[in-house]
Amino acid sequence: MINYMKILSWKNFLYLSIGFLTYSSNVIAGPPIIEIEIKDHLFFPSTVEIPANKKIKLLVKNLDPTPEEFESYDLNREKVIAGNRKVIIFIGPLAPGEYPFFGEFYPKTAQGKIVAIE
Amino acid sequence: MTSIRTFLILSVVAVLVLFNFIAAIQGYSSGMEKAGLLFDEKMLNTAKLIANLHVEGNASNIEHTSTIAFQLWKNSKLIAASSNAPKNPLTDFQPGYDYTNFDGYRWRSLGYYDRKRDVWILLTERDDTRFLLAENVILESVYPILLGIPIICLAIWLIIGYGLRPLSQLANELRNKKTSDLTPITTGDSAKELEQVSSSINSLLERLNQTLEREKLFTADAAHELRTPISALKIQLHNIKQEMPSNSDALKQLNDGVNRMHHIIEQLLLLYRTTPEELVRDFSKIDLYTLAQNNIAEQYSLFEEKQQNIELDGVATEVNGNIFGLTALLQNLINNASKYTPIGGHIKITLGKNKDKPFLRVEDTGSGIPAEAHNRVFERFYRHNNQQTASEIPGCGLGLTIVKHIVELHNASIKIEPSGFASGCAFIVEFNQ
Amino acid sequence: MFLNSIALISQEVLEASILISILMALAKQLQLSQRWVLIALVMGSIFAFIYGQNMGDVSEWFDYVGQEIVNASIQLLIVILMFLATFLYSHSIFSSNKQGQIIFLANAIAIVALAIVREGAEIYNYLIGALVQPDYVLTVTAGSLIGTGIGISIGVLFYYAMGALTGKKRHIIGLVLFSLIAGSMTSQAILLLNQADWLISTPVLWDSSHLLSEHSLTGRLLYGLIGYEATPSALEFAGYLGTALIILFIGMKKMPKIKCLEQTINA
């Protein structure tokens, strides 16, 4: 099994080594968390409103037993979510506007969009 | 090395697969687009039908298929709906097509406003069933392309293989041709592209044949034309010896000169007579041990003269070879050893097998050959330490060239090592049989 | 599902097959045996299967961004190995040296196997998801076969096209493509680290999606080939450019020596 503490210290080490590039503010406060669920290859909610110009932590829960890939060309995001798992995807800061996303594995049904508003 | 055949098959199949598949994708995409338009049109017709048939009054549930859902709104009031439709509007009150999610499915939606009756028809159709239906129909035309690919690949493989057959036949014929076989090749005639190749090879073979014939004639002529005057010269010299005082210095030099010339001619003829075909033709099992014994016996006067100690060590060792060639080989090696070994020296001949390979080792207590000259000693007319030895040791520098020649014809190898004695070198011949 | 499976599979296969064909062309130029490809494919597939199966667990590492970290590490490792490959090839000190040849081939195996691990794991997850749905089995199979066919065909044609070029041209084109692939690996890694919030996000430099959408098949193939992105961020662009320049710098440095080697090979 993975030694979680050890990994955390790795992460801290990496934060230190590339410290000038990382956002130190979010380590302390943390960006707002938005939850999206995947069920029957659909996103719930399919439209997510977020504040513009702010970093957001998307918590995507896959309630289906099959894997899905969260993908968005406008957000430049791509991530596989195994069946019955959850992942975190950081997005933003985004300019106001609509950012569609979809499930790469079931793009006919799994469609949604993020709306960044001032 | 690139195989023409592999290149042709792979690149042709790759081009074929690529363009066939792209065409299939193109066909699929436009097919799906057309199907979508068709479904949309059907939805519009359904919406109009519903508007025409609508029953005024309270909201009522209407029988329907589960793949569509609809609502009838008048003055923002739901007056009729299919039982699977939710209570809120299925879609915005906007004319035109869109998508919506409810009931765990994604739906294609249509808003239709009937001006005459002032009603909104909100109609949705399950997008996945629409899509599957269209896809199933269109994919039926894609599958044959996919299934055809293995068949096409097999056909290309066979056709290219067949097309390149003249080339492989030519290669086969050349491969199987014996070195002595200089008859023209025939396969090139069947393909236009190979005509030039085969005619060039044939003219080359013919010229080679002529050259070899000339060489054979020359050797035979030279043997006759050169030996006869030398024999005459020797007889006359013998006669002069009877008449002149035997200690005449000029006579001795003349005698040596004639002997050297005789030796050179014999060696040159030997070199040219041992053409591969003639030698290989009469290969037989030969016992190197017996051959070496006879050789030593024949040349015993040499060793006696220089008070050299000669030793033959080993067992009967059979090799497949030409008796004439192997005799010349042994003679040259033993003679050389004696020549370059000082008076009272030691010569040792060892025979045996090393890992099943017969070998012959001739070593002496001579001055030896430095490593940098090892390759050069086999060159024609090369004599090691030329200036010093030429006057003292008779020879023309052809002996080891002949040895090397014979070694190669017997599929053997020769190398030079320091001898087992304090000085001198060892010649080792190893037969790959 | 059909188009989607084609796009997904062909993009992943193309990335690997272009990398393989460039490395094969280099190995051929150095007169090395091509058996290494088979070893790389088998090794890559095995590890891709293992990684794909454990994708769920990996995702939960590092506070649910394990996938990004692992993938970014793989990409960056490939970039470093590509630097090494360029160095080994262009300095060609090993054309007659057995040990150098083994290092070159081992390096090529590692690059290809690593590339396959990441891409194979994604394909594996896609297929296990799609193939459990009876409605989609036929469609997804057909799409996957077509996608694989397209990816491999482009790789094969690319390999022979490289072989058809003459020495210096082949060297330059091979090097430029190699640098673009390495650049795209770096920018993908930066994107992944952005996504995991391990790197600061930088503003988007331009938007060329109206010219060529990443969504289109061409866009996706170009993404697989040289990492085309319609909306790259400043950091991604810098990483791309920097990596590509390093490869060009390493590869161009010893041009005269390459020429010598080519002459001896052609002789």
Gyration radius from CA atoms of chain B, angstroms = 49 Å
- Physical arrangement of strands within the biggest beta sheet of chain B: 1-3-2-6-5-4
Mean pLDDT of chain A equals 78
Mean pLDDT of chain B: 84
Name the shape of chain A in a single word: globular
Helix content of chain A: 10-25%
Number of domains of chain A: 2
Coarse shape of chain B: rod-shaped
Order of helices and strands of chain B: HEEEEEEHHHHHHEHHEEHEEHHEE
Seen as an oligomer or otherwise, the chain set is heterotrimer
Here the CATH topology of the largest domain in chain B equals Heat Shock Protein 90
The succession of helices and strands of chain A, N to C, reads HHEEEEEEEEE
Task: Describe the protein's architecture and organization.
With about 120 residues, chain A is an alpha+beta fold. Chain A has two domains: about 30 residues, no CATH class; about 90 residues, Immunoglobulin-like. Chain A is about 15% helix and about 45% strand. Chain A contains two helices and nine strands. In chain A, the strands form two sheets. Chain A has a five-stranded mixed sheet with strand order 3-9-8-5-6, with no helix packed on it. In chain A, strands 2-1-4-7 form a four-stranded mixed sheet, with no helix packed on it. The radius of gyration of chain A is 16 Å and the shape is globular. Chain B is α+β, with helices and mostly antiparallel strands and about 425 residues long. Chain B folds into three domains: about 140 residues, 2-Layer Sandwich (Beta-Lactamase); about 80 residues, Helix Hairpins, CATH 1.10.287; about 160 residues, Heat Shock Protein 90 (2-Layer Sandwich). Chain B has twelve helices and 13 strands. The longest helix of chain B is centred in the middle third of the chain and has 52 residues. In chain B, about 20% of the residues are buried. By secondary structure, chain C is mainly α. Chain C has one domain. Chain C is about 80% helix and about 0% strand. Chain C is built from ten helices and no strands. In chain C, helix 2 runs parallel beside helix 5. The longest helix of chain C has about 35 residues. The N and C termini of chain C lie far apart (about 55 Å). The C terminus of chain C is likely disordered. The chains are: A alpha+beta (about 120), B alpha+beta (about 425), C mainly alpha (about 270). Chains in contact: A-B, A-C, B-C. At the A-B interface, loops of A face helix 2 of B.
